[in-house]
Amino acid sequence: MSVADSESTRRSATWCRVAADTADAALFGTLLESRQARWKVAGFALSWATLCALSLRSTHGWCPCT
Q1: What is the DSSP letter of 62?
Q2: What SS3 class is residue 46?
Q3: In the predicted model, is pLDDT for residue 65 greater than 90?
């Protein structure tokens, strides 16, 4: 994301990061044995996904397809 050569490339990479963090939250939030670990990891991954999604608001476009 930090070395993207254009704004649309950076937006697309950021959306991929949001999707990956959300998938991490879903997988680790269900597959870890300890309930406490599931909550911690899922919360951490969702926090990163949220921060990345919010960072898109600082760009000119919200959707990577525009």
Answers
A1: S
A2: helix
A3: no
Residue that is written with structure tokens 């959707």 in the block: 63
Rounded to whole angstroms, what are the CA distances from 59 to 10, 14, 43, 63?
10, 11, 25, 10
Q: Are 56 and 15 in contact (CB under 8 A)?
A: yes
Give the model confidence (pLDDT) of 45-61 as tens digits. 999 999 999 988 876 55
C-alpha 27/C-alpha 32 separation (Å) is 8
CA atoms of 34 and 52, how far apart (whole Å):
27
Q: How many CA atoms lie within 13 A of 66 on its CB side?
A: 6
